[in-house]
Amino acid sequence: MIEVRNVNKSFEDKRVLKDVCLTFEEGKQNMIIGQSGSGKTVLLKCLVGLFEPDEGSILYGGRDFTAMEKSARKLIRTEIGMLFQGSALFDSMTVMDNVMFPLQMFSKMTLNEQIDRANFCIDRVGLTEAHNKLPSEISGGMQKRAAIARAISLNPKYLFCDEPNSGLDPKTGVKIDNLIEEITQEYNITTVINTHDMNSVVEHGDNISYIYEGNVWWQGGKDTFLGNENPELQDFIYSTEILKRIKPIS
């Protein structure tokens, strides 16, 4: 579980996060949604340590990440997997080498153990025939799968995904969503997903947090998401063309 307690973050005179309090549940897909500029990306970067909150605390399993020294933070970072929006694979490295990279950097495995783990992760995401291919030789969807394999290579407790189906066609996007859900449940990972895709939220959002102008404006699950009575969230949801068709009649 990840707890966010009264986190504030400003850049110069602009306050971006305002007393944010959230709990991201273990073994669940925790979605962060909000308009561009609402603060959700800044929140995600605070969670993984790319930004330092001005005030407040972020706790991983009761451990205060914000109060730790660098050496202690490094241990928690080995428990974190990150799926970047653009996959962020190394262009000059094969899929196998990309997946092995964090194992070489952060694990104490022998070379044979690293190879076995990388092979397992690549096969787990359905890329059995792509081990020795470069990113440029595989499709965008396959690149996302390779990035997921790399993100889970260290067997993380926490998985962060930034717009995981961005740039993918709808069918491939659904496959990526399903794969993340499977991995979350299979390994009991605390997964945090920053997304604009309302269809992903409706289908997979176990725990949904709507950020509005730097505040936590609404929280709930997918069962209450579409029928919520929050006017700002209603406006945000039904600005998505596909969901306009299923907006409840008031």
Q: Could you please describe the fold and organization of this structure?
A:
This protein has 250 residues and is of the alpha/beta class. It has one domain (27-39, 75-239): Rossmann fold. 37% of the residues lie in helices and 24% in strands. The strands form two sheets. It has a six-stranded mixed beta sheet. Strand 9 (207-212) and strand 10 (215-220) form a beta hairpin. The model has no long low-confidence stretch (mean pLDDT 89).
Characteristics:
Rossmann fold; 6-stranded mixed sheet; 4-stranded antiparallel sheet; 37% helix
CATH H-tier superfamily: P-loop containing nucleotide triphosphate hydrolases
Number of helices: 10
**Helicity range of the residues?**
25-40%
Alpha carbon gap, first and last residue: 37 Å
Here the CATH topology equals Rossmann fold
Q: Based on the structure given, which CATH architecture is correct?
A: 3-Layer(aba) Sandwich
Topology, number of strands: 10
DSSP strand content: 15-25%
How does the SSE layout of this entry go?
Elements: E1 2-11, E2 14-24, E3 29-33, H1 40-47, E4 55-60, E5 63-64, H2 70-77, E6 80-83, H3 95-106, H4 111-124, H5 140-151, E7 158-162, H6 170-186, E8 190-194, H7 198-204, E9 207-212, E10 215-220, H8 222-225, H9 231-237, H10 241-244
Overview in brief:
The protein is α/β, with parallel strands linked by helices and 250 residues long. The protein has 10 helices and 10 strands. The strands form 2 sheets. It has a 6-stranded mixed β-sheet with strand order 6-7-8-3-9-10. The chain has a 4-stranded antiparallel β-sheet with strand order 2-1-4-5, with helices on one face.
